[in-house]
Amino acid sequence: MKYFHLVWSALMRRKTRTLFTMFSVLAAFLLFGMLDSVRTSFADAGHSVSGAHQLITMSKLGLGNQLPLSLQSRLEAVPGLTAVARVSWFGGIYQDPKNFFPNEAVSANYFAVQDAVVLPPDQLKAFQSTRDGAVVGATLAKRFGWKVGQQIPLEATIWPQKDGSNTWTFKLVGIFHARDASEKSIEGVMFFRWKYFDEARQFAQGSVGWYQTRVANPEHADQVATAIDALSKNSDHETKTVTANAFTASFISQLANIGLIVGAIMAAVFFTLILLTGNTMAQAVRERIPELAVLKTIGFSNRSVLLLVLAEAVLLVVIGGVAGMLLAAGVVGGLKAALGSQLPMAPVGGSIWGEALILMILIGVVVGVLPALRGMRLKIVDALAGR
Amino acid sequence: MNAAVAEVQANNGPLVQIRGLSKVYTRGKQKLEVLHHIDLDIARGDFFALMGPSGSGKTTLLNLIGGLDSPAQGSLTVGGKRIDTMGEGDLARWRAANVGFVFQFYNLMPGLTAQKNVELPLLLTRLSSAKRRQNAAIALQLVGLSDRASHKPSELSGGQQQRVAIARAIVSDPSLLVCDEPTGDLDRQSAEDVLGLLQRLNREHGKTIVMVTHDPKAAEYASHTLHLDKGTLVEHATVA
Q1: Cβ atoms of residues A67 and A61 within 8 Å
Q2: Which contiguous run of DSSP H or E holds residue A295?
Q3: Interaxial angle between packed helices A289-297 and A258-287, expressed in degrees from 0 to 180 and rounded to the nearest 10
Q4: What total of structural domains would you count in chain B?
Q5: Which of A32, A156, A205, B22 is the most buried (most CB within 10 A)?
Q6: In a domain, B108, yes or no
Q7: Residue closest to A345 by CA, chosen among A334, A354, A355, A356
Q8: How confident is the model at residue A135 (pLDDT cuts 50, 70, 90)?
Q9: DSSP character string of A164-211
Q10: Which residues on A lie below 8 Å from B89 (Cβ)?
């Protein structure tokens, strides 16, 4: 610590340059914190269902594969489950493809499982008793100006009707709100009756996208999930039971290899950062050669000079990096509050901080090592003479 | 020269003893001998001026005496220790304990205050932070800059910066001060202040000083003057 003021004064010798470099480090670690939060969320998805009160059972082969309707009665017989609902992804479009919003066919008992929404009892009753009834979240209703009682036409992208028409019309019977601000994103979803969907669709009748179930005791969620998946073991429709977050992660994974994308982006960002910060450090040390020579003159050893320059580089990256990670923690917290489980992001916790700190130190050492070696190897007499 | 310093000289012999010292620089295939077989004794408590034209080898000799460079040949003993045979690490430790350096262009750390600049050599000791501060304050007081302790070099005049550099050179109480053109960048008044200060450190505190200078007036402050020409000792004068 007694050398800290020396390292700090060297770092602050050119304040503007140092600040700009720190900003670039901050930006890189802000990106790292956010992307690693997503990557961690995907990597952890499905590892454990312990503590979950809702489970989702889907085909082990992925969401593109349907499950049989006959599985429902067998699921209902699994001890520890209080409700079993059917869900199928519809993927309909309202007026224009750019108006995309999630829309799903769900069984009438869906809201006994999905407790993230608050639907007035009369509207719930209307949903359960109206064959072509649909409910939408408040955000979605506000977005398109929909009112209860209105007919909403959706253009199917996957499921045509038996008569070949792609236009499905639903009667809006309810508008729900999110129970919790952290689940606000669910207000952008539309649900309609699965029975109507199944009867009217042109093909794949009697198949279900996935089952959403409610667990009586979250502490037993692991055992319940194992029991569910055991039902279809060695059948042509083996299942995988996961939490809602893991399900969302799996859904997005259908589109791309998140780990690979995150890794590629971060590699590019850190490579650029190393070039930029390395250049700054090299320039900073080049300007300070006479000062380093003076340190050596008054008795600082080669090793001390090496460590001082390395400490300067590490400090530069750590300050920018910690600021970036703090910002990332705030942004991820905000995004989680706004989007809930729709966008899987793990909190910027201990493991992500640990990875970030290791990266900061590594990058600091990498960008500092060449200038530090130059400082260490300088010949005092030549440096003082300006050679 | 005061009596105390003379007594130390008489009792302990020369502080710096140079025998058959040569220095050769190699540039490509060319070898350039800048010092030829120098024999020289510098007594403890002496104030020694090295003079000579540019390229005569005086800074090279100063660097060798200060342990900043190694000779090609010969022996160099300072305070009873052969420094010409020391490795880089040992030389660094030796310099920290035994030599104070004053440069023409002060060479202070621009980001540090005068106080922190003076404390620099003490970072290499086991002194506590409070003791370092105290010693630096004493050194600054000695050079008459107590009231400038919190100023950065850019806030000081050239003469004041050189006095801070002198405070830094003496703060760890070395027996030898090597000064390379300490007044070369100063106006006449500041130069006289700095030279007066060096003379006081020599006379009142017993510091042995070896100073390179082009300026005959500066050399007048020394008790002995050595002239070098083309790497050879030309004249060894004693000032009364």
Answers
A1: no
A2: helix A289-297
A3: 70
A4: 1
A5: A32
A6: yes
A7: A334
A8: very high
A9: S--EEEEEEEEEEEESSGGGGGGGG-EEEEHHHHHHHBSS-TTEESEE
A10: 301-302
Contact B87/A at CB under 8 A: no
Å between A380 CA and nearest CA of chain B: 7
Amino acid B5: pLDDT: 47
The residues that bridge with A250 in the sheet, in sequence order, are: none
* B116 close contact with A: CB closer than 8 A: yes
Backbone angles phi, psi at A208, to 5 degrees: -125, 140
Minimal Cβ distance to A296: which of B92, B97, B111: B92
Q: What is the CATH number of the domain that holds B48?
A: 3.40.50.300
pLDDT per residue as tens digits for the range A81-129: 999 999 999 999 999 988 889 999 999 999 999 888 899 999 999 999 9
Question: In this predicted model, what pLDDT tens digit does every residue of A164-214 receive, in sequence order?
Answer: 999 999 999 999 998 877 677 788 999 999 999 999 999 999 999 999 999
Residue to substitute from A298, A304, A381, A387, interface B, most B β-carbons within 10 A:
A298
CA B19 to each of CA A212, B37, B47, B178: distance values in angstroms, whole numbers, following the listed order: 95, 7, 20, 19
In this structure, the dihedral spanned by the alpha carbons of residues A272, A278, A280 and A282, taken in order and rounded to 10 degrees, is -150
Contacts of B129 in chain A (CB under 8 A): 2
Q: Does B31 reside within a domain?
A: no
Model's pTM, two decimal places?
0.71
Q: How far apart, in Å, do the first and last CA atoms of chain A sit?
A: 33
CA separation for the pair A239, A56 (Å, rounded)? 10
Burial class of residue B201 (count of CB atoms within 10 Å of its CB; 0-12, 13-18, 19+): buried
Instruction: Express each pLDDT in A329-349 by its tens digit.
Output: 999 888 877 765 556 677 888
Rounded CA-CA distance A280/A10 in Å is 12
For chain A, positions 273-312, list CB contacts with chain B under 8 A.
Answer: 290-291, 294-302
Cα dist from A174 to A114, A121, A179, B9, whole Å: 15, 10, 15, 106
Residues of chain B with confidence (pLDDT) below 70? 1-12, 235-240
Domain containing B100 equals: 44-70+87-238
Any domain includes B26: no
What's residue B9's pLDDT?
47
Count Cβ atoms within 10 A of the Cβ of residue B75 and give its class: 0-12 exposed, 13-18 middle, 19 or more buried.
middle
Distance CA B223, CA B200 (A): 12
Query: Which chain B residues are within 8 Å of A381, Cβ to Cβ?
Result: 63, 68-69
Is residue B81, in this structure, part of any structural domain at all? no
Q: Which residue of B has its CA nearest to A10?
A: B111
List b or e across B98-133, with b for residues whose CB sees 16 or more CB atoms inside 10 angstroms.
Answer: bbbbbbbbbbbbebbbbbbbbbbbbbbeebeeeebb
A13 to chain B: closest CA residue: B111
Residue A268 DSSP SS3: helix
CA distance A352 to A32: 9
Query: Cβ of B111 under 8 Å from any chain A Cβ?
Result: yes
Contacts of B16 (CB under 8 A, 6+ apart): B40, B41, B42, B65, B76, B77, B78, B176, B208, B210
